[in-house]
Design a protein that fits this description.
The structure is a single chain. This protein has a domain at about 25-75 and about 110-150 and about 160-210. The protein is about 35% helix and about 10% strand. It contains four helices and six strands. The strands form two sheets. The chain has a four-stranded antiparallel β-sheet, covered by helices on one side. A two-stranded antiparallel sheet has the order 4-5. It is rod-shaped and about 90 Å long. Keywords: Membrane, Transmembrane, Transmembrane helix.
Length: about 220
């Protein structure tokens, strides 16, 4: 008799346990919490990325404007428009002739490029202006300066006036939140590289130089 009563009590307890749904709310809360944290931290991190991109883009315009009126950030950029060796001897072009007045008037030096180096005064002036807009992984060497000859700018014997380009490249953006782990916790089965470091978008700004601080 006692054994039968104990069996009935055990069956009743098991049935009650099966019908008990008091813990379901906790499970649902855990799933919703993981999804909420994923959205919350994702908004923060992608907001950081958008902030750096927008502010860096504006800073690059200021950097190019400054580079266009300062001495070159690279070695090998001429100070003045020189005559082309092919245009010498009888009938040589007079100083003051525009470079685009004909072929072989000014010496075409092509493009001179270099990475940013704080030992250069122009780079040392530009870098503090853009540093605060970039991810923490950025350095002055991630700025690239280019000076490209353009026959439509300048005249023979006058200040060398190239097209000045400031480019931002090779920067990595680091997420601070474990987005991949949060996505898996929320139920995702394939998170790929979510939350891994990504390449920060490259950008460049070009404008004509303004005598590169050599003219009066």
């Amino acid at each position: 008799m006692k054994r039968h009563i104990a069996y009935r009590r055990g069956s009743h307890t098991l049935a009650t346990f099966r019908r008990d749904e008091s813990g379901a709310t906790l499970v649902e809360f855990a799933l919703v919490l993981a999804l909420f944290l994923l959205i919350y931290f994702g908004t923060i991190d992608f907001g950081r990325l958008a902030f750096h991109y927008v502010t860096a883009e504006k800073a690059m315009h200021s950097a190019a404007r400054l580079a266009a009126v300062r001495p070159p950030a690279c070695d090998g950029v001429p100070e003045f428009h020189q005559s082309d060796p092919l245009n010498t001897g009888t009938g040589a072009t007079d100083y003051g002739t525009r470079c685009n007045a004909g072929a072989n008037i000014c010496l075409a030096v092509g493009t001179v490029s270099c990475s940013g180096n704080l030992n250069n005064p122009t780079v040392a002036e530009i870098w503090p202006m853009v540093r605060g807009t970039l991810p923490n992984t950025a350095g002055p060497e991630d700025l690239r300066f280019s000076y490209t000859y353009d026959s439509n700018l300048g005249f023979l014997g006058g200040p060398y006036v190239p097209v000045v380009t400031v480019e931002l490249q090779n920067i990595t953006f680091q997420f601070v939140s474990p987005l991949g782990a949060l996505a898996r916790l929320a139920g995702a089965t394939n998170t790929g590289n979510l939350g891994a470091d990504i390449a920060f978008p490259a950008m460049s700004v070009s404008m004509p130089g303004e005598d590169l601080a050599h003219g009066a």
